[in-house]
Amino acid sequence: MTDKKKTGGAYDPESEGAEMAFSDKMSYGDYLGLQQILTAQKTLSDAPDELLFIIQHQTSELWMKLMLHELNAARNAISIDHMPEAMKLLARVSRIMEQLNSAWDVLRTMTPSDYTQFRDDLGLSSGFQSLQYRLIEYALGNRNLVMTKPHEHDPESLALLQGELARLSLYQVVLAFARRQGLEVPEEVTAKPSAEPHREVRAIMDLWQIVYRDPSRYWALYEVGEKLVDLEDYFRRWRFNHVTTVERVIGFKRGTGGTGGVSYLKRMLEVELFPELWHVRTAL
Fold first, then answer.
1. From the DSSP assignment, how many helices (H) and strands (E) are in the chain?
2. Is 172 exposed, middle or buried (0-12, 13-18, 19+ CB in 10 A)?
3. Rounded to the nearest 10 degrees, how much is the dihedral formed by the CA atoms of 24, 29, 33, 34?
């Protein structure tokens, strides 16, 4: 009753010890850098939906930053045979992809009429040029060196891409682990970082058949194999949602970055990151 009287009947968190003064202390906004984040949306038009478009892509980039962090940690864990830790990290990556997929549902509320009000203001900027997306693709093994070209104007971005290309991809790290488990893996598959997209290798198909026919004996490999399939499953859904959203909003117009738009994105649907893990299901 005393607390209510002090505040005119309203609940006062300070009465239970909540800190209310932050002139000399770190606050929630300070810790999260909210002043910088919430003022980073610079619209170039008066179109109401441009803010949606910017926030959609900025939040996606934040999730991709976390995804890269977890992928790097997972590779490090697998390289030293810390598989339970790696499983947790890869599961988190799939959940991040789930968040990225859900974001398309919000963007799809934007109609073609809404988008045309500010599309010209984008100039040649395009998600095709996303550095973090390219780093994720390279980490997962889809290493098309041509895709470094949009970043050649920026030495820092180019250095990040080259640093990623100097590392074994996630799949290569998993296959190196398989060798340490006594399974046959061609030396050339994991001897050096791949400089091109992974293509199906017969010996790797044989390896996964051995694992999937005796999961209890090769449990760590069986589990990581399923985690990779889970990750790619979400990644494929992300690409599909991207295609359908673009087609819904701009039809078959060319992308702002000069790509074929929907035709380019549909070509990306054909990419397989871990082909042996998908094709082994037919062989079993």
1. 14, 0
2. buried
3. -140
Residue with tokens 């640093």: 163
On whether the CB atoms of residues 39 and 96 are closer than 8 A, the answer is no
Domains defined for the chain, CATH in brackets: 51-283 (1.20.58.480)
- Show pLDDT as tens, one digit a residue, over the chain (284 residues): 454 545 567 888 888 888 888 889 999 999 999 999 999 999 999 999 999 999 999 999 999 999 999 999 999 999 999 999 999 999 999 999 999 999 999 999 999 999 999 999 988 888 778 999 999 999 999 999 998 999 999 999 999 999 999 999 999 999 999 999 999 999 999 999 999 999 999 999 999 999 999 999 999 999 999 999 999 999 999 988 888 888 888 776 666 666 666 676 777 778 899 999 999 999 99
Token code pair at residue 276: 């042996």
Give every CB contact of residue 181 below 8 A, 6+ residues apart in sequence: 218, 220, 221
Structure-block tokens of residue 22: 């932050």
Residue by residue, DSSP assigns 217-283 as: TTHHHHHHHHHHHHHHHHHHHHHHHHHHHHHHHHTTPPPTTSS-THHHHHHHTT--SSHHHHHHHHH
Would you say the pTM of this structure is higher than 0.85? Answer: yes
